[in-house]
Amino acid sequence: MMAVIEHLGLGLSVAATLQNIFFCFIGCLIGTLVGVLPGVGPVATISILLPVTLSLDPTGALIMLAGIYYGAQYGGSTTAILVNIPGEATAVVTAIDGHEMAKKGQAGLALGLAAIGSFIAGTVATVVIAALATPMTRLGLLFGPAEYFSLMIMGLVLAVVLAHGSLVKALAMIVAGVLLSCVGADMETGRERMTFDIYMLTDGIEFTVLAMGIFGFGEIFKNLADPEKRDVMRNKIGRLLPTLGELRENLGAILRGTGLGSILGVLPGNGAILAPFASYALEKRLSDRPQDFGTGVPQAVSGPESANNSGAQTSFIPLLTLGIPPNAVMALMVGAMMIQGIVPGPQVIQNSPDLFWGLVASMWIGNLMLVVINLPLIGLWVKLLKVPYRLLFPAIVAFCCIGLFSISNDGAQVIMAGVMGLVGFALYKLQFEPAPLALGFVLGRLLEEKLRQALIISDGGMSTFVTSPLSAALLLVALMALAVAVLPSMRKSRDEIFTDA
Amino acid sequence: MSQAPEIIQVDLPAHEPSPPLPPPSSPWLGRERLAGLSLIGLGLFALYAGADLPFGGEGGVGSGLLPRSLSIILIVLGLVQIAITWKDRPESTGRWPIRDMLPVLTGVFLFAITIRGHHFGSFEVPALGMAVATPLAIFLSGLAAKDVRIGELLVFTVILTVVCVALFRYALGLSLPVAPWLIGY
């Protein structure tokens, strides 16, 4: 416990410098902005800003990018409550009861509860990260190639189990993602794979190109084809701060949501995305009046909002301690760290403790800022929502093009992202989730590298993955998760969690 | 805590809910079966694309091991997908308005070839820089909106171009060509 406080103290001394507070503020501001605006997400935004971070110092750069990510979780709820459009995927649940509350004239209460819940969640998650960092890092140091391989397999399996909709489709997306990551020169032999001698494929597909194509351009194509129905909200916002009584009624939901989010976020398979759904289902089950859910119940806003915020933050744990990115945003963080010459993994905490603890502490500072940015400035964000989509998306196109070009200095990459946008649109039409594809792609190269290393160490014996107890345990967890997910009874309750919401 | 605005009016285009879609003309064009077919197609294509890669190699993992195994898994998953949704009522995938997307794609393409120039055989596109590439991308993609207003879009294009150049080139210091034909960089 003392060590945790000591580490957080070190972190605060790094994060509370004027320069880093500034980066944190910029990150939170941009994050809130892209969270509020539907059609631009943190993935596309961080991709665009990646080349900018080159000129910053590593700590400042990571603090800013992290701020964009959790700031977007805050901003997403504003749009969800006021306009019934989830600005972010994780705010889908918030929109259900949050917008009903807004219709009843309780928009302010919903926003206030979301912000306070998120702040409590952010605070708890910061402590969770600080407490888990050292043991997880020690665990990470025990990992050899075989264990890493099994850990990634477990992460990918969990991503399938936790994804929305069809298991087969989610599995197929993961496999397709890993397959796409194989395109380009083989890391070991330098041999070109599946490139058809097209020069822009020789180095493989850049993750930023894939991400901006599918999450940037793909989103735009989707919105052009099927414009979202926007619910005009003409009620009063009402008071923002909940009364003590209301706060007491929601505290349970907030704490349960925080707990669920913290646990699910740590899983190496993007569990954070499930957290708000799980929290909604839990609150509905615990409620005295479950039939009221969907008509504007405050607990259905405060719980899921806390869950998505704590999940977003604890999803930094697998990245920072094990070097395994659990979702697309964390994969971009890997990119940002690599640009700065930092290889993510258990050694980061030892080699650059300033950066590690500074980043963790900045999350708490950022959460404090977000309450300030979000509540009093709510009028400003509402004005932003008035920007019509017909002007918003050309701006997104321009930002994506400039971002892509500045990363690669090559026009061909911009064109490739456009093509990826069409792929993203096809995925949407066929109801494939793009998130598992991105995760598979991100882990693909690492997966092959570790597989090779493990097999070279073991002289080609596949048994190495089961004779190491750690690796065997990880594979067993993966197998059990998969088995449980295909069991008919479990499938039913899994579907319930999603359809409940 | 400052005063919250009394009334908010969010002026967003309210869209009519789309009418229910008619079922597809053939069950093979239903969404789920089409998804399965795409997986099989992708798997077969990847098998063909990686046909020249050696399966084995040092340590037992050749360049072709992972791509080929994954392609086969993809084909199997495609078959499973078709099998488990065989009896479902086929659902249409709705409109595929590629024509509505063409302005965006054209804008992106023109941005890519004009920003630093490009050779097409003997035909050469000069390096026009952000001053030309950015407005092209903004204006052309803006045309894709159904509720486009040309005058408004033109003004917006000019303003946003200035903002982009100021932001990315000068404020953020990225080495992007601005207008090589005019100011040399």
Give the SSE order of chain A as H and E letters. Answer: HHHHHHHHEEHHHHHHHHHHHHHHH
Main sheet attributes: strand count, strand direction, barrel closure of chain B: 2 strands, antiparallel
Shape of chain B: flat
The number of helical runs of chain A is 23
Distance between the termini of chain A: 38 Å
User: Which strands sit side by side, in order, in the main sheet of chain B?
Assistant: 1-2
Low-confidence stretches of chain B: 1-17
Order of helices and strands of chain B: HHHEEHHH
Specify the number of helices of chain B. 6
For this structure, the quaternary state is heterodimer
* Biggest sheet overview of chain A: 2 strands, antiparallel
Q: What is the rounded distance between the termini of chain B?
A: 48 Å
Summed over residues and divided by their number, the pLDDT of chain B gives a mean of 84
Which parts of chain A are unreliable, with pLDDT below 50 for 5 consecutive residues or more?
none
Our Rg estimate of chain A from Cα atoms comes to: 22 Å
Transmembrane segments (chain A): 20-41, 48-72, 109-132, 139-161, 167-186, 198-218, 324-343, 355-381, 387-407, 470-487
Protein name (chain A): Tricarboxylic transport membrane protein
Organism (chain A): Paracoccus pantotrophus
Domain DUF112 (chain A): 21-438
Please give a quick description of this structure.
Chain A has 501 residues and is mainly alpha-helical.
How would you describe this protein?
The complex is a heterodimer of chains A (501) and B (185). With 501 residues, chain A is mainly α. Chain A has 23 helices and two strands. Chain A has helices at 2-15, 18-36, 42-53, 58-83, 92-103, 107-142, 145-162, 167-181, 207-225, 244-266, 275-286, 299-314, 316-322, 328-339, 348-351, 353-374, 378-384, 389-408, 411-429, 434-457, 464-467, 469-486, 488-500; strands spanning 184-185, 192-193. Chain A has a two-stranded antiparallel sheet with strand order 1-2. In chain A, strand 1 (184-185) and strand 2 (192-193) form a beta hairpin. In chain A, helix 5 runs antiparallel to helix 6 (107-142). Chain A is globular and about 65 Å long. The mean pLDDT of chain A is 87. Chain B has 185 residues and is mainly α. Helices cover 51% and strands 3% of the residues of chain B. Chain B has six helices and two strands; from the N terminus they run H-H-H-E-E-H-H-H. A two-stranded antiparallel ribbon of chain B has the order 1-2. Classes of the chains: A mainly alpha (501), B mainly alpha (185). At the A-B interface, helix 8, helix 9, helix 17, helix 18 and helix 19 of A face helix 1, helix 2, helix 3, helix 4 and helix 5 of B. Chain A: The chain crosses the membrane at residues 20-41, 48-72, 109-132, 139-161, 167-186, 198-218, 324-343, 355-381, 387-407, 470-487. Chain A: It comes from Paracoccus pantotrophus (Thiosphaera pantotropha). Chain A: Keywords: Membrane, Transmembrane, Transmembrane helix. Chain A: Residues 21-438 form the DUF112 domain.
